Amino acid sequence: MKRIKELRDTRNMSQQRLAVELNVTQAMISKYELGTSEPDIDMIRRIAEYFCVSSDYLLELSDDKISVPVSELSKEEKDVLFGFKRLDTIQKAKLQAYLQGLLQE
Question: Is the domain of 52 the same as that of 6?
Answer without folding.
Answer: yes
